[in-house]
Write a structure and sequence with these properties.
five-stranded mixed β-sheet; about 20% strand; alpha+beta; four-stranded antiparallel β-sheet; binds zinc ion
């Protein structure tokens, strides 16, 4: 109901995008051809094309151009509603739920989901982390399906290796009491993880890891580094622990397990985006829906 009051129809959604991107007052926008601010009018035809035109020179502006909504056959209001649903429950919705709620096909719901997660919720250009930062890597991917197990057996592959190949590695770093950054990485070798650490964490930051060999050199690479000896079954030693990041991994893996879809690596990054996006806004007073909407109209 709250959503319907704000965005009762497609036209309202379109006008929202128009105002946010081009004309704050709904009427005046910068005309590229006149090279000054002009009065624009809604293009009023039977087809109601999603554009405005300059009253002086006729130049047209298509407010959806360059957004994830451009060229979509799904109505703008459904897009907005999908974003609303995804952000208004605490643990998100599945593509199956989206399909039901929106009355679209599963394929469409799936495509919308991927665009929202991979483009709007992508925070890969966020500021690096600092302060006290925990980091860790984990393997994600459930039991392989029966069909895959049969294929492995038929081809005589090593069962153990074949299973591990299908698992994805996720690396994440989190500020204690702050933000998180995470991504699917090709493997868990030292150079791969170090490249991510450089990207995610400011030099001289206090970092906490377990005793995995890939983290050994961090002290020499300009970080302050404390390690917890997980292989000796020690998990907390004063302030030395990685409980924050493990908590996040726990939630994330639960979500993956409960989802309907098989874990592909591209899908997994999108799903990870959604989890980190949510995590980074957990204490914010602003509605996640409006945050996401802002992302959708950003140039
Ligand atoms: Zn003009």
């Amino acid at each position: 109901m709250e959503f319907m009051r704000e965005f009762p129809d497609d036209e309202t959604c379109l006008r929202h995008v128009w105002r946010e991107r081009f004309a704050p007052d709904g009427e005046h926008a910068f005309c590229q051809r006149c090279e000054v601010e002009r009065t624009f009018k809604r293009y009023e035809t039977a087809q109601k094309r999603p554009c405005w035109f300059c009253q002086t020179c006729g130049h047209r502006i298509h407010p959806l151009k360059g957004t994830i909504f451009e060229g979509s056959s799904t109505s703008l209001q459904l897009w907005f509603y999908a974003m609303y649903l995804i952000t208004s429950t605490r643990c998100g919705v599945s593509a199956k739920q989206l399909e039901r709620e929106l009355g679209v096909t599963y394929k469409t719901a799936w495509r919308m989901f991927n665009k929202i997660r991979n483009q709007l919720m992508d925070e890969s250009d966020a500021e690096p982390l600092s302060g006290e930062v925990e980091m860790d890597e984990t393997f994600v991917g459930g039991k392989p399906r029966e069909s895959y197990r049969r294929e492995v057996a038929r081809k005589g592959w090593n069962m153990q290796t074949a299973y591990w190949d299908r698992k994805a590695v996720v690396f994440a770093a989190v500020e204690r009491g702050g933000r998180i950054r995470a991504s699917v990485v090709p493997d868990s070798r030292g150079p791969t993880l170090h490249a991510k650490i450089n990207e995610y964490v400011l030099p001289a930051t206090m970092v906490y890891t377990d005793d995995f060999h890939a983290y050994k050199q961090l002290g020499k690479k300009g970080y302050q580094h404390k390690r917890i000896n997980h292989s000796a079954r020690i998990y907390v030693q004063g302030d030395v622990h990685t409980q924050t990041i493990e908590g996040f991994f726990g939630l994330f893996k639960n979500g993956v397990r409960g989802s309907y879809h098989a874990v592909s690596k591209k899908w997994l990054q999108g799903y990870l985006n959604e989890y980190t996006w949510r995590y980074n806004r957990r204490d914010s007073d602003r509605s996640m829906f409006h945050d996401l909407l802002e992302e959708a109209v950003r140039d």
